[in-house]
Amino acid sequence: MPQNTEIAIDVRDAVKRYGPFTALKKISLSIHDNEFFTLLGPSGCGKTTLLRMIAGFEDVTEGAIFLYGEGIDALPPHKRPINTVFQNYALFPHMSVLENVGFGLEMLGKSKAEARARAGEALEMVQLSQFATRMPSQLSGGQQQRVALARALAPRPKVLLLDEPLSALDLKLRKAMQVELKHLQRETGITFIFVTHDQEEALTMSDRIAVMSAGELQQLGEARDIYERPRNVFVADFIGETNLMEVTVDAINGGRAQCHLGGGHKLTCDAVEGITPGAKVHMSLRPERLFLSVEPVENESLTGRVREMIYIGTDTATIVDLDGGPQFTVRSSNSSRGNARTFEPGTEVAVNMEHGAGRLLVD
Amino acid sequence: MAGGAATGGSVQSETYREARTWLLLPAWVTLGILTLAPLTIMLVYSFLTKEFRGGVIWEFSLAAYDQFFFDRGLFGDEPPRIEWTYIGIFWRSIWQAGAATVLSLLIGFPTAYFIAMRPQKERALWVFLVTIPYWVNLLIRTVSMKFLLRDEGPLNEGLMAIGLISEPLGIVNTNLAVQLGLFYSYLPFMVLPIYAAVERYNLALSEAAADLYAPRWTILRRIVLPSVRPGIVAGCILVFVPSLGSFLAPDLLGGAKTFMIGSLIEEQFKGNAGNWPFGAAASMILLTMVLILLILSARPSRKGVR
Ligand SMILES: Nc1ncnc2c1ncn2[C@@H]1O[C@H](COP(=O)(O)OP(=O)(O)O)[C@@H](O)[C@H]1O
Ligand SMILES: [Mg+2]
Fold it and tell me: In which element (H, E) is residue A185 found?
C-alpha cells in the first residue's frame, strides 16, 4: 500500500480522439508516488493509448496530465523524466546490452564512466551482468525483456511505464517476472504504471488497479476492493470468475436487500446505493464463496441438482442447475482441510452462501 | 504399384537432382555468357599487343599496363617514371563519382525517408514518381540536363529573374555540371534501397530512444542511420560504381578538364584510332578498384566505432 500519498501522475479529464473515433472518454485518475499501479482491461480498451499519452507519444485531445503537479502536455517525450518498457522491448539491435542500458544515461549527459557504472548496476538488478557484452539478438525473450527493464530503470525515472511487458513470456517465466517486478518496484521506490489485460496478473502485483473498458474507467481501487466489491457488471465479470445472476429486489431492511431470482429462490445481501425495491439488477456471487451441502444449512439456501464436477487441481468446480433457475458454479478447495465433496451428477444439493458472498451491481 | 512407395524417396531425390541441374542451367548460361566470357576476353586482350587500326595481335605483352602506370619518354628508351596522366584521370573520376554519390545521398535519404513515412497506400505512388524520369533514355536525360543548366537555360534565367544572380553561373563544362549529371542519372538507385531499408525499420526504436532522452537529430544519427546502413551502403555502391565508369555525363556536360575513365576507355575502342589492349587494361584496373570497394563495404559492420 502506498506509504506516501503525494500524487505522481494526475490525469484530469483526458480525452483522446483519433478522427471521429474516441479512444479515451474523459479519464481522470491519480497515481500515487511510489505506487504499483495497474491499468487493466480487455484488448482495445485504450490502455496503451493512455500510457502513450503519459509518455508523450500521443497528444492529449482534451484535458491535461500532470507530473508531480506540473503540466507536462507541452513537453516532448525526451524531456519527460518518465521511461517506458515497450511491449516488444524495442532494444537497439546494433548496440550491446550494456550500451542499450547506458543509452539513457548517456543522453542525460552523464560521463561515459558513470553511464557504464550505472548501466552495470541496472544489469545487476535484473541479474544479467554476465550478458553485458552480448548483442540483443543473442538473448532469449525473457532476457531481452529484462534488458528492456534495466534500460528503462537505469536513468532512475520518476515514473516507469510498462506496457504488457510479460505477455510474450511463457507462464512459468511470467510468474517469476511478476514477483521480480514487484520486488524491483519496492526496491527502487519508482512509481510503476503497469498495463495488462490479465486480471490475475493485476490482482497479484498491484497496489491499486484501474479497470478500463471501451475507453472508460470502470473502477479504481485496491485489488481486494475490486474483487470483492465490483461496482458494475463489467468489473464483476472481467475480474475473476463469478456467477452473474439477474435478481429482483423485493425489500430493503436495515441495510440488507432481500431479492429473488428465477425459480423463486430467495437471497439476501448487503444493499448498495441506488437500489430500490422492485428493481431488476444483477448480483455477482463468487464461486469460492459458495458451498454445497446435502441438506439446506439455513432457510435461505438454494436447491438444485449437480450437473457435473470438474477437477482443476487445487480446486473442484461443481456446476449446479438450480430448480427452475439458472446454473451456478461452486468452487471448493481440494486441500486436506478443504471442503470438496464428491457428488454424483443428478444428486440433489443445497447451494449455500458465505456471509457477504453476494454483491449487487448497479449497472 | 505396391513397390513404388518403398523406393519413392530415393527416386524422388534423383529426379530432384536432375531437375535442379536443368533448372539452374539458365543461371549458369547467363553467368557464363554475360559475365565470365566478356570479362575473360577483356582480361586476355589487356595482355595482348595492340594493332594500330584497332584490334589486337595475338602476342603476349605488358605494354598496356606499362603505358598506364609508367612514362618511358617519347621513344620508350628512358628510365621509367610514374605516369600521372591516367592515374590523374582515375583520381578525378573517383572524386566526381564520390561527389555525385554524396549529392545523391543528401537528396536521396530524405526522399526515401519521406516516402517510407507516408501511409502504406501512398508509398507505391511516390516510388513511381521517383522512377518516372528513368523511363526516358539516359542520353536524352543528360542532354536535357544540359539545356537546364546552360547559361540561357531556365536555371540561370530563373535565378536572374528573381535577382539572386546578375549573370549566368556558367555551370556547363565544369566539374559541378558533371556531378549534377551523374547525380541525376543514378538518383533512384540511391532512393530505392534506402527506402526499402527505412520501410523495414522499426519505428518503435525511435520512440524508445526519445523515451530515453534522445533529441531528434541524435535519434537519426545514433539509431536510424545505423539501422538502415545496409540500404545506404547499397545505394552508395549503386550510384558510385556506374558513375565511376560513366562517359555520357562527362562527354555531354563537361569539358576537356572533366575527362573521366569512362571516356578514356570509350576512346580506345571507338573508330580506328583506339588501343584495345590499353582500353582493356584500363577496364581491368577499374574493375579491380570496384571489387576492392565492394569487398570493403561488404564486411560485416559492428556499429560506428567511437
Ligand atoms: N493511431 C491510431 N489511430 C486510430 N485508432 C487508434 C490508434 N491507436 C489506437 N487506436 C484505437 O484506439 C483503441 C485503443 O487502443 P489501445 O490503446 O492500443 O488499446 P489497448 O492497449 O487497451 O489494447 C483501439 O480501438 C484502437 O483501434
Ligand atoms: Mg495495448
Answer: helix A171-188
